[in-house]
Amino acid sequence: MSEGASAGGHRSTGRRRATAAETPPTPIRSRAYRRLVNPFAHPRIYSDDQVAAIHDAALSVLENKGMKVLSAIGRQRFRDAGATVDEETLVVRIDRGLVAKALATVQGEFTFHTPNPEFNVPIGGSGVCFATTSGPPNIMDIHGGRRAGTLVDFENLTKLCQSFDVMHSIGGAVEPQDVPVHLRHYATTRSMLLLSDKVPFVYARGSKQIADCLEMLRIAHGVDADELTRRPCTWTVINTNSPMQLDIPMAEGIIDFAAAGQVLIITPFTLSGAMAPVTITGALTLAHAEALAGITLAQSVRPGTPIIYGSFTSNVDMRSGSPAFGTPEYAKAAFGAGQLARHIGLPWRSSNATASCAPDAQAVYEAEMSLWGALMGGANFILHAAGWVEGGLSTSYEKFILDVEMLQMFAELFQPVGAEPADMAVDAIGEVAHGGHFFACAHTMERYRTAFYSPLVSDWRNYGTWEADGAKTATQRAHAIYRKTLEQFVAPARDPAMVEALDAFIERRTAEGGAPLVS
Amino acid sequence: MSEGASAGGHRSTGRRRATAAETPPTPIRSRAYRRLVNPFAHPRIYSDDQVAAIHDAALSVLENKGMKVLSAIGRQRFRDAGATVDEETLVVRIDRGLVAKALATVQGEFTFHTPNPEFNVPIGGSGVCFATTSGPPNIMDIHGGRRAGTLVDFENLTKLCQSFDVMHSIGGAVEPQDVPVHLRHYATTRSMLLLSDKVPFVYARGSKQIADCLEMLRIAHGVDADELTRRPCTWTVINTNSPMQLDIPMAEGIIDFAAAGQVLIITPFTLSGAMAPVTITGALTLAHAEALAGITLAQSVRPGTPIIYGSFTSNVDMRSGSPAFGTPEYAKAAFGAGQLARHIGLPWRSSNATASCAPDAQAVYEAEMSLWGALMGGANFILHAAGWVEGGLSTSYEKFILDVEMLQMFAELFQPVGAEPADMAVDAIGEVAHGGHFFACAHTMERYRTAFYSPLVSDWRNYGTWEADGAKTATQRAHAIYRKTLEQFVAPARDPAMVEALDAFIERRTAEGGAPLVS
């Protein structure tokens, strides 16, 4: 058959369908997505010498320019650790020996624990996990348009995250703007703990909010505070204020999370040309310096604090200043960040991002460039893996589903390909007539049920059939899928005593006035 | 800045724009896309031993099952080469010694020559080139819908190919169904030669059509027939009829092209579960055997015939038989095909394909999966790189433009990243205030004009601006871009004497009755 002519499924397949009696129960294919391992070697944009030179340049930056640390508590911790602190300028200069001491105690691998250990997530090595988008204030769908996020939307996104094995963690999937900020973390944490088994997140919005969240997690895990410090069960993102500044809630978030033994995703957000140098290598050098500062602080608070080296380096449109995502620069920066993370022995985090204002073709090619860049770069944790649009200002329900389709395809890409004699199928090739087909031969009949990935969104039908069924685009089908997934959602079982304790805590803290956001 | 909060370009950038006096002339960035080199290492799905075992299994298939060759001329050539031919069954069995002899004369690298040598395309090694889609009978755009392709559409697609440096070759971008088949090759070849400098294609539709096309190319190159055999200047795709059959025009195309010293893209089209085994490894084993048969025939006609090892392996939907493209299986098969091609020392070809019936999100993620699979797999020639939708039954104008955007992003991905001290920007980092910005520092001002890729389709503006401008999707913008590109098209200059000779040839051959299609 010519590749041009009859592709499209017009042929009658003549394939016999298996009868019910012959069909063994099929294990749920997606269960394999719960523990993903990326088997592929990483592309490199730098030689080993260049990586070492960037690391050395970053160390020089920390010794000379230093990091401006707005938090007095943070500066004191740096001082205690041996850094040079200038109380006039608020600048902390960190000797490379201190950095080396910190890097000697980082963990290359650790595990996120969930109350149901089936949902534990190993971090590091060749492992890969995906978390929802985190931080957008708005929500959109193709029928309702764009509006401010609500708690119902946050809960919907938590339910969607729960519904797909390929999603491992839930971030701040949308800001519930209908809940006052001093109470918001109670609502979101409760939702995550009751509606999902996946790893929940915490925002670094001040010590009081963090303490509240860790207490809620402690209740959910049914352990004491001491045991919780040995059980990484949540993460927070620490963004530096590039270039070379650490704001108050960020420094204090590092300290609080390190003290609690919880996971810090220390992520300079470096847009080349804007708050970072216009060269990719300059942006990575700056980001590396800032990350090392955060790592040093964390390790000085608690040696062995689990940290994920975060990289979120992209470029801007130099004519307008608009951030761009999923660009060639973004992908190359991801390759480079992976090399730097492996140089210092930490697992690392990347993102799936787009500047598109709609769940359209641009959103998808920018997502794919982000994902391939991150995953080939060896990222262990992909934040914003599902739902992000509009430079992070909105979450799209349809994009969430399109992203899940893409993520499932990566999960399948990572599954090994058999190359035993039976896989080479020489006997089957011998049996089938020249110019014939393999639909009904034994080799196919034994394998067809599980041979291939069955898509969530993709429509492979021929044009006539697709058109007669309404000529729906992938984005339209994604809309229907998210609605149906929510309709079919069943919340996981929870111990009523645990729920009661959680609610009692929330009630008490609410009566006490909650915990204001610190900025 | 937090990655969640202010992404979206709401900030005033305060960036000073360079004055006209300060702006040096900018070289056209895309000129670098004319010669692409992929610097990245290839992911592997097989160990070296497994690759060798697949190769060995393929040799066994050729010795035992053999290839059914419908062309008597083809069978005679195989017989002359030393293969065992059964005239009853039409099956040719090829000893591994004959295959080894053929593989000893293949070229690892060669160059496509164009009349204007600026557009020559090197093939092999780490080189990459992109050709349009080839073969679809239908055309579509989002306003006109789907209809039969015409000569005007073919010319439009030739003009679009000419308009972008990232496109290196033009295939049968749509079938001009308004031109009778016995004359069609005159019209399409003339259009390619007059409207484009890129490498043109030829269909293997019988010796007469091939001879006509090669004569037209000879006229365009201004050389004699003997010189043309030393100047690869066109390609034809040879699809085997999987499993294990070579149809008449395909065998005769191999013979004619080999005799003429022109490039054969020998491509088994193997859909796992349909005309190939349901395992990826089985499909690749089958495809490898068929490719080796074609290579053996070609090398026996002319040792050193330039050949590109073609792989077009995907899966089907086992419930319906519909072909699928850009799937995880497709990408893994591309990785494996690359390993097999390198094992035998040939450059190789892959594709950019989708089963989507529209230029929508599915078309794009399947395209990206195809492209990343092919390019990370080390493919040197990507056919169908731009325009393909609907399993190859239609060409979409919008998809063409979306694909060009994606291809340009790959071209940029391949460009090296500087890691000199100036790239690390330590001085600039030292100069810029903590928490400040890099927009106006010298390091940025010296580089910003050329620092980043400027997109063709992508819109990075904030939501308010995008919405006020009509809330256009990427597909809608692609439509406008293709229309504008065609409006602005200027045909390349041609020697009037050459055009006259070409037209005289076409007139004479038309009067003689043209050349019927052979199938």
Key terms for this structure?
7-stranded mixed sheet, 4-stranded mixed sheet, alpha/beta, globular, 519 residues, 19 strands, 19 helices, homodimer
How many individual helices of chain A? 19
Runs of chain A in which pLDDT lies below 50 for 5 or more consecutive residues are: 6-20
Kindly estimate the percentage of residues of chain A that lie in beta strands according to DSSP: 5-15%
Query: How many distinct beta strands of chain A?
Result: 19
First and last CA, distance of chain A: 64 Å
| Structural class by helix and strand composition of chain A | alpha/beta
Rg of chain A is 25 Å
What oligomerization state is this entry in?
A: homodimer
Largest interface: A-B, 148 and 148 residues
> How are strands sequenced across the largest beta sheet of chain A?
1-7-17-16-14-12-10
* Helix content, binned percent of chain A: 40-55%
The mean pLDDT of chain A is 95
Overall form of chain A: globular
The biggest beta sheet of chain A is recorded as: 7 strands, mixed
Helix and strand topology:
2 copies of one chain form a homodimer.
Chain A: E1 36-37, H1 48-64, E2 67-69, H2 72-81, E3 84-86, E4 91-93, H3 96-103, E5 109-112, E6 121-124, E7 127-132, E8 138-141, E9 145-148, H4 151-163, H5 181-195, H6 207-221, H7 225-229, E10 235-238, E11 245-246, H8 248-259, E12 263-266, E13 269-272, H9 280-301, E14 307-310, E15 312-315, H10 328-344, E16 348-351, H11 361-376, E17 381-386, E18 388-389, E19 394-396, H12 397-413, H13 421-424, H14 426-431, H15 442-445, H16 448-451, H17 463-468, H18 474-487, H19 496-511
Parallel strand pairs in A: 2-11, 7-17, 8-19, 10-12, 12-14, 13-15, 14-16, 16-17
Antiparallel strand pairs in A: 1-7, 2-4, 3-4, 5-6, 8-9, 18-19
